[in-house]
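Q: what sequence does this backbone want?
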């Protein structure tokens, strides 16, 4: 059985996004509604993968310190409230990558860069639901923003160290670490299109991580964190990390940045995602819809949107 077929047998894909409100409580987005997530762009750079055995606390600290100022906290105003997610700067003139489901249905998008940045408006340059990627633009003014560089996602190996920086449950600039736990997974985009070659990691990803960078031990972006597996045990309840997360590989992200496309499918709100494995399960609308999750198999949800 191939990795892709094993994944298909395991469960269904879904999106995770968060709705803003009091405190940091998040609403699970198990369907393609107005969910959150974001960022992308930079000149491709080939980085040598480093085995997890070489990972140290100092490595994690170095990766975080080198990347934190380029990571974005993204808020999207929709008809159902505020969705939030993560993203990162890909060009020094202010282009940012995130997941399409983070800005889906947004009437206004704001971005806060780094740990001390101020919230500023952002323009959605492109948003493609078939790739679950969106490209944003902020006004960099006379300053040159710190942009993250891309690593070679095709050279990533199982066991390589991974680091994720994002905003799970609204807790901005949270660092988690793990390894590449599998390769060449197939996940489902918000519009049902298969995204091939996803990187599986056990680094903790939760709602709000969507659109954030998955980094290697050299601090290079090897993917955009997009989905997580959850038990799907409760309809409408919060879904959290179970040690299985998925990132869109850097090569796909770089291609999107070079040739940004829009799908016109950013409708937000009441959309439901079709179970990609034919089990008939429905995913929960992240903003209070009445869809029910298939409780017989694990669900894959997007970890972005807080």
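A:
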């Amino acid at each position: 059985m191939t990795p892709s077929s094993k994944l298909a047998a395991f469960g269904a894909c879904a999106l995770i996004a968060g709705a803003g409100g009091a405190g940091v409580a998040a609403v699970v987005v198990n369907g393609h509604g107005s969910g959150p997530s974001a960022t992308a762009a930079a000149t491709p750079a080939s980085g040598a993968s480093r085995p997890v055995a070489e990972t140290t606390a100092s490595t994690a600290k170095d990766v975080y310190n080198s990347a934190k100022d380029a990571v974005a906290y993204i808020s999207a105003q929709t008809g159902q409230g505020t969705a939030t997610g993560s993203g990162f700067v890909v060009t020094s003139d202010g282009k940012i990558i995130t997941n399409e489901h983070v800005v889906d249905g947004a009437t206004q998008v704001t971005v806060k860069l780094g740990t001390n940045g101020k919230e500023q408006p952002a323009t959605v340059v492109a948003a493609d639901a078939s790739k679950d990627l969106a490209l944003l633009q902020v006004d960099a003014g006379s300053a040159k923003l710190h942009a993250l560089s891309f690593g070679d996602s095709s050279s990533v190996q199982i066991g390589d160290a991974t680091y994720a920086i994002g905003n799970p449950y609204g807790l901005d600039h949270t660092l988690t670490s793990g390894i590449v736990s599998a390769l060449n997974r197939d996940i489902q985009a918000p519009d049902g299109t298969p995204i091939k070659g996803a990187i599986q990691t056990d680094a903790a990803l939760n709602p709000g991580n969507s659109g954030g960078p998955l980094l290697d031990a050299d601090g290079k972006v090897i993917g955009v964190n997009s989905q997580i597996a959850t038990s799907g045990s409760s309809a409408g309840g919060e879904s959290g990390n179970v040690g299985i997360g998925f990132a869109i590989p850097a090569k796909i992200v770089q291609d999107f940045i070079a040739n940004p496309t829009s799908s016109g499918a950013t409708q937000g709100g009441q959309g439901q995602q079709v179970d990609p494995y034919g089990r008939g399960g429905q995913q929960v609308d992240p903003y209070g819809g009445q869809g029910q999750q298939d409780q017989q198999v694990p669900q894959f949800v997007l970890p972005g949107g807080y």
